Amino acid sequence: MLDQPTTTGMRASAQLLEALDPIKSDSLLALIALAEADPRNDKIDVGVGVYRDGAGGTPIFRCIKAAEQILWQHQNSKSYLGSMGDRRFTELLRPFVLGRHAGDERLLGLQTPGGCGALALGFKLVAAANPTARVLVGTPTWPNHAPVINAAGLEIVRYGYYDRDAQAIRFDEMMSMLDGARAGDVVLLHGCCHNPTGADLSQDQWADVVRTVAHRGLLPLVDIAYQGLACGLGEDAAGLHALLEVCDEVIVAQSCDKNFGVYRDRVGSLWIKSADAATSGRAMDHVAQIAREMWSMPPDHGAAAVRTVLDDQALTADWQVELAGMRARINNIRARIAAADPRLAYIGGQFGMFSMLPFDAHQVRQLRDTHAIYMADSGRFNVVGMADDAIDRFVAAVVGAMNG
Ligand SMILES: Cc1ncc(COP(=O)(O)O)c(C=O)c1O
């Protein structure tokens, strides 16, 4: 008989985890923590990326509350749904995301855990099809793009997208990057409400991008996380729809987290278009397999609530009213900031929740110390991150900082 090991005096021997390097913390998360710890009552946190209403809250949409009530009353099972998630959710979302292309059978979609989940799946699909594909990324971009692309093992090629000091898109630089790209390279594009700059491509610029992407045989991956928050649901997807018009292959990573206000419920979708329905079906089988490895299946609740809204005409109409209200608030605040000083006029011509101020780290720090205004070191701020009664104070502090 074997002796039973005794635990006295024993030390675990693996020590594997001790080899881990410290993680450089996400500066935005650190900023949120700093703002939360600030005891000043009049603090303004324009660092965090959530919509705030006039009272400074991030309320649950009426239509989502109503849908949750319906779910509570009628949902009679929480058994597994499978890697594709809620198929009715995807089907109902289809016309909003794909517009006039909704009937195209080469376009297939599945539910994902938020936009992040869709991006992760999309890039992993690219890596499965071609591990040497490069991803062209305009900078600055949303800070999580690079980690997600790196995690898929793909090479990133950066180009300058926006000149913060000139407050303009570096369109020539973008076009020369696309013109010089290799066939099969992936181009990451923000569908609308560019994060962090607010600088969206104009219609003419989209037309040039679409033409070049198609001509050079590039694969566009469109990240559309703020549809409906710039000009309207259809208008905000116009660039995506133009790509779908001419490109055989397109990947779309979509999020409902902002435009249904369900951030923590993690609701999104991934869409794949290829040259024929059979190839798209095969790509979807791969995507479902990758999803199975990563999270098996997406969380149900938020997508079920969105599906319940979209399955009901009155709730869908109310959603659109609420979304239009958010859009109007964003664009009103932009107009107010733009009118305050000619140097801020550019903010009125940008879109979505974010814009960048031409501040250095010292000015950002001063705004925080003197005015309890919290924004990212890059000067990115959430246009709609403050209550109505804070807007004038915010604008005055920003103009003061610009004057030095
Ligand atoms: C540009 C962009 N893409 C994707 C996402 C991810 O959204 P989600 O919260 O749905 O994962 C965000 C979120 O901030 C974003 O700004």
Question: Key terms for this structure?
Answer:
single chain; 404 residues; Aspartate Aminotransferase, domain 2; 2 domains; 7-stranded mixed β-sheet; 14 helices
How would you describe what is shown here?
The chain is α/β, with parallel strands linked by helices. The protein has two domains: 23-60 and 319-403, Aspartate Aminotransferase, domain 1, CATH 3.90.1150; 80-311, Aspartate Aminotransferase, domain 2 (3-Layer(aba) Sandwich). The chain is 43% helix and 14% strand. It is built from 14 helices and 13 strands. A seven-stranded mixed sheet has the order 2-10-9-8-7-3-4, with helices on both faces. Strands 1-12 form a two-stranded parallel sheet. Helix 5 (145-151) links the parallel strand 3 and strand 4. Helix 3 (87-98) crosses helix 11 and helix 13 (361-371) packs across helix 14. The protein is globular and about 60 Å long.
CATH superfamily of the largest domain: Type I PLP-dependent aspartate aminotransferase-like (Major domain)
Strand segment count? 13
| Bulk shape | globular
CATH architecture of the largest domain: 3-Layer(aba) Sandwich
Mean pLDDT: 95
CATH class annotation of the largest domain: Alpha Beta
TL;DR?
The chain is an alpha/beta fold. Helix content is 43%, strand content 14%.
